[in-house]
Every structure is written in C-alpha cells, then in structure tokens.
C-alpha cells in the first residue's frame, strides 16, 4: 500500500457537519506517468507527531476528508511580559523620568504584563483581543485591535506569521497623573498613549 504526505492540498470548503471555514484535506495521488494511485493512503500528523487524519484514495486517486481537527483562532491565548526598565525613547533623561515613580516606577514594579481573556472576530483577518494589562502595579482590562498580515518562510527554515495590534491607553487609568503645565494652562504630556505592536509568531516554537 502506498502512503503519501506530499500530495495534500488543503481546501477551504467546509464539509457538512463541520465548523464552517475550517480547512479539510483534498489530495490527488498520481504516478509519474499520470495514472491514479488507487487505495493510496494519506496521513496527516500534528506538530507532536500524533495522527489526526487518515484517508484512502478512491478509484480516481482522489483523497478527501472532513475538517481537520485543531484549535481555532478563537481558542488562542496571548501572554506577554516586558521588563519595564527596558524602555528606550532615544533620550536618556526622559527615559530616567519614565522609569521613576512618576510613571512606571520600575524599582517597585519590574514587569509590564498582558494576559488575554478572549478573542472575537472583527472582520476579514481581524480580531479583537480581550485581556488584562498590568502596568505600574495597576491591572486594567485592555482590548487590542489585531490584524493578520500573512504567513511565509523565514531565513532559518521556520514558518512565520505576522500580526499588528493597536490600542490606546489612558495614563490616569494606571495612576499616572504626573504632568507639567506651561503658561496659559497647556499640558506638556498628553492624557492618552497610542500603542502599536508588530508581532511575529513562529510555527511550532515554544516559550522558554
């Protein structure tokens, strides 16, 4: 019996009874001369080596399956930790002030952390990530607007996916009320901060 892992081409068409939009398997098994390989068997394994699909070709060499099992984007989770003292704006005096108790208070609160609590679709290749941001010892719910930018091979042989996320924070939500006022009552420091994240994920990679 002939077993192939090479002729599988995912199809976006959802099978009856399966979750809409989840990819199934469709393959066409042929010899070098173009003849169909009858009763060929195609197996699909996950990243741990566990078999998730085993399908046999028909008389025309066609192999197909229902939706492949596996996690959906909605079941994904995000966890991020940043060393607060690593802030770098290109100005040493400003960075020192941002590390002080007026802002990040890095001596008391070493880490900035984010933990997701859910994910909901927000359009084609877009999601809203719901989570909790802990900044300077204060934890607040923060949503991220997430966009999927594409997937491709990297120079090190990995498969890499790119994302961009954006949100806006209010300083006072994290007890950062320091400000300077110049003449005419103009504040030098804005009340809000726009956050832009460029993210790359490598398939199969795990956190240390």
Could you explain the architecture of this structure?
With about 210 residues, the chain is mainly β. Helix content is about 5%, strand content about 45%. The chain is built from 1 helix and 14 strands. The strands form 4 sheets. It has a 6-stranded antiparallel sheet with strand order 7-8-9-10-11-14, with no helix packed on it. It comes from Nonomuraea helvata. This is YceI family protein.
Overview in brief:
This protein has one helix at residues 92-99; strands at 3-4, 8-11, 24-28, 41-45, 51-56, 62-64, 79-83, 111-123, 126-135, 138-153, 159-170, 181-182, 186-187, 192-202. It is mainly β and 208 residues long. The strands form 4 sheets. Strands 7-8-9-10-11-14 form a 6-stranded antiparallel sheet, with no helix packed on it.
Features:
208 residues, mainly beta, Lipocalin, 2 domains, six-stranded antiparallel β-sheet, three-stranded mixed β-sheet, elongated, Lipid/polyisoprenoid-bd_YceI, YceI family protein, TTHA0802/YceI-like_sf
Tell me the distance between the termini. Answer: 41 Å
What is the CATH topology classification name of the largest domain? Lipocalin
> How many DSSP helices?
1
Taken in chain order, the helices and strands follow as EEEEEEEHEEEEEEE
Q: In the residues, how many domains can be counted?
A: 2
Shape: elongated
Please identify, by name, the CATH architecture of the largest domain: Beta Barrel
Structural class by sheet pairing and helices: mainly beta
Helix share of residues? under 10%
Which strand order does the major sheet show?
7-8-9-10-11-14
Q: What percent of residues are in strands?
A: over 45%
Q: What's the story with the biggest beta sheet? A: 6 strands, antiparallel
Question: From the alpha-carbon coordinates, what is the Rg to the nearest angstrom?
Answer: 25 Å
Stretches where pLDDT is under 50 for at least 5 consecutive residues are: 1-21
CATH C-level of the largest domain:
Mainly Beta
In the CATH hierarchy, what is the superfamily of the largest domain? Lipid/polyisoprenoid-binding, YceI-like
Count the E strands: 14
Let me know the average pLDDT: 80
InterPro entries: Lipid/polyisoprenoid-bd_YceI, TTHA0802/YceI-like_sf
Organism: Nonomuraea helvata
Protein name: YceI family protein
Pfam families: YceI
């Amino acid at each position: 019996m002939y077993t192939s892992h090479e002729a599988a081409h995912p199809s976006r068409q959802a099978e009856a009874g399966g979750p809409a939009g989840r990819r199934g398997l469709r393959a066409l098994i042929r010899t070098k001369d173009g003849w169909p390989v009858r009763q060929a068997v195609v197996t699909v394994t996950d990243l741990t080596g566990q078999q998730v699909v085993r399908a046999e070709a028909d008389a025309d060499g066609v192999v197909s399956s229902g939706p492949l099992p596996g996690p959906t984007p909605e079941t994904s989770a995000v966890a991020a930790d940043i060393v607060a003292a690593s802030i770098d704006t290109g100005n040493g005096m400003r960075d020192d002030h941002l590390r002080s108790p007026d802002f990040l208070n890095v001596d008391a609160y070493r880490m900035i952390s984010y933990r997701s609590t859910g994910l909901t679709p927000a359009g084609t290749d877009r999601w809203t990530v719901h989570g909790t941001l802990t900044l300077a010892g204060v934890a607040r719910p923060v949503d991220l607007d997430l966009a999927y930018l594409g997937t491709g091979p990297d120079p090190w042989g990995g498969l890499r996916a790119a994302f961009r996320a954006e949100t806006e924070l209010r300083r006072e939500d994290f007890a950062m009320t320091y400000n300077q006022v110049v003449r005419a009552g103009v504040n030098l420091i804005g009340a809000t901060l726009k956050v832009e994240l460029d993210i790359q994920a490598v398939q199969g990679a795990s956190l240390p």
